[in-house]
Amino acid sequence: MLINLWYVAEWADKVKDKPVRAKLLGQNFVLFRDSKGKVHCLSDVCIHRGGALSGGWTTERDCVACPYHGWEFDPEGKVQFIPSRGEGGAVPERARIDAYPTEERYGMIWVFMGDLDEADRYPIPPFPEYDDRDNWRPIYTEFTWNADVNRVVENGIDIAHTSFVHPGFGYREMADKNHIVKIERTEYSGSSSCVLYPPPLEGGMGINRLFRKDKAATHVHPSFYLPGHTVHLHIEVNSWMSMIIFDCNTPIDENTTRSFVVQVRNFFKWGVFDGGSVKRTLRVFQEDADIVEALSPHYLPESLENEVSVEQDKFTGAWRKVRKVHVEEHGWKIDSKAMALHEGEKIFTIPSPARRRNPELRWALETVPLIEPSNPSSGPDNLVSINEG
Asked: For 375, phi and psi rounded to 5 degrees?
């Protein structure tokens, strides 16, 4: 699990007038809205006696109050009121917890899990079709995997598996015909263009089968983004019909991944077709989960020496390369084994921007241990473009 990235913590409409608990990167956080509707995110632990702030309430000070002794924490994580000391009572300087930047995009609450300054953060992935309601209709769903997030992302951009795992997307006998046309990779993202030869399009009450002939060449464009561990899958059904699956994959912990999924389509934009779209999307995710949750080992192998790859694996290899750079050169990977030694005895937290701005402050909570980079480098990774014949 990596820090210093944006992740989706919850659907925006789930956070209303009460605090909500969210779990990311193995840690608990509290989400709450202030009087102006802005969502805030703090560590879900009161540094007084360990109360869970998500079990509390919001106050007139635009704070979230601990249900144990009523201490009130503002959006910056600072304690503004200690009831036992009364109004105007002194508040210790150390009485604060970590607060994290938030953004609402695409119906989701994004939280930056790290201490980088704003100028140094990778951006939230683009999804321009989401706001173009004249041309695209969205549906929303989610899926929870008993799997490592990196396995989930890799599966989402792996076109070669479709001929075997998804009957609605491919034929086994056409596996050698499917191919990658182009790959591009940046420091934090990658995109590719592929050609598949799938069965007729399903859904639309049977109407969709008229719009794509059996085994017709179909152009598919998978992309990945390190922020949100996002997969953006654009499927050109034919020359005028397209759908996009945009899923943000949040590591709840090292064994659980929660996918926040938005699908948009530029055809049959009436609500009567939404239920079928959701059902088909969840069926595809379940087909993938049946395979991904049984993969061995549970985590991605750290070395390619432990696997055998072929040319069709180039794009999943691009994801591994991007991730590996941030582990080995930037040192952003959480050392879960080191944390496990203190389970139940010590609370850790993700480092926040305020820690970088206040290095002299004695924080009550320790930050998660990180794995030391094995190949430190300060230079950005240049864009790589690969064209297949």
From this structure: -145, 70
